[in-house]
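Tutorial handout. Part one gives the primary structure; part two gives the three-dimensional structure as tokens.
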Amino acid sequence: MSDYIHVDIHSVQSSKKPGMPCGDMLATLRTNTGTTIICADGIGSGIRAHIAAQMCVSRLTELIQRELSLRTVFQFVATTMQASRDPQKPFAAFSIARFRPDGNATIFSYDAPLPILLSRQGASILANRPFPLPGGLAVESHCQLDVGEGILLMSDGITQSGMGYGANTEWTSGGVVRYINNMNNSRLNLSLVPEILHKEALARWKGEVRRGSRPVSERSFSPYSPDVRHQATVRQTKVAGDDCSVVMGLCRIGQTVNILTGPPQDRDDDIPTVKRFLQLPGLKIVCGGTTAKLVAKFLNVPLEMENEPMSTIAPPRYGIKGINLVTEGAVTLNQVYNIFDEDVAHLQEDSGVTELRLLLDVADKLNIILGKADNTANTDISFRQRGVLSRKVLIPLLAERLRQEGKLVNVEFV
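Part two.
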């Protein structure tokens, strides 16, 4: 498959009291099996709620990293929370959604507002069914997403906004859906939905309920909807607000970038490694003179070198027909790492370093194949004097920086 579906994360949140920790917590995990987003809402507000939400997210992420099924992860944490429904214990409601690379999505919600589907037809509460948990507080949903579609998760600070200012002033999930659909009539950019919903919720908490925004009847919702369940427990007096969080996973076609740097440790792996690299879908980048020779030889094309490089600092580029970018190895990669925090708009110089940095910036998924063959050049004392890290040291550091930017990064040592 030449393309894969990438999930952009758009989120916004605020605490009930300015300057205090938010009682909600959002988290994102990216792996080759998919992108997972979590929205946890600790009971109450402030530090205690923040700790509860943090503990919930930590449990979920730890179990996910053990490669357990999402269903197993949800059941374990939801059961734990169900046994902790005590004001003296760290309790949190939560939703967890996983988006697979083919657009298939699975969402589980425990005592939290139901997930909302954003599609070409508008917004709707996802069809759901009860999850087998004593108390009926959990539901699960499944859907197939296409490019331009997404899933919206919220804390109840959004759906309960406006509560306490009279009858039927609580926004509810249905009110949120209707509000989004009204916005869709004007062809709203979906990436702006979380910010707009958050702003509207804060206004409603201040009593600025819009005319005509009265929520639809609760009777139209599933009996497992948290909007219904909360009716028995909500405060009937005017309240100051709540922690408010909105997070959305929005699907689009992702950009894959593949990097081959350094020859394999075993020479018998040279041809298989190059062949597998060339078969990977996406843009191709080769970093390193020896590596470039291997690729050019396999393709039976000449290896060219930049005749008049414009940069006096960056090493010259190479050229191989069919490869998007070919650069020198360790020095180029080190220079890219050194300018990683610079705004790409400021990279005006035409060089292999800036071109590589720009390609890393547009990448959503990176496959890096790192050869472990010894490179005598990297042991030269001049490299150490200039602070040039070997690729074996540098690539893991660069990969971690890229992950911090929300990119999916796979590093393979050969």
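Part three, for discussion. Residues 211-239 have pLDDT under 50 and may be disordered. The first helix runs from residue 46 to 65.
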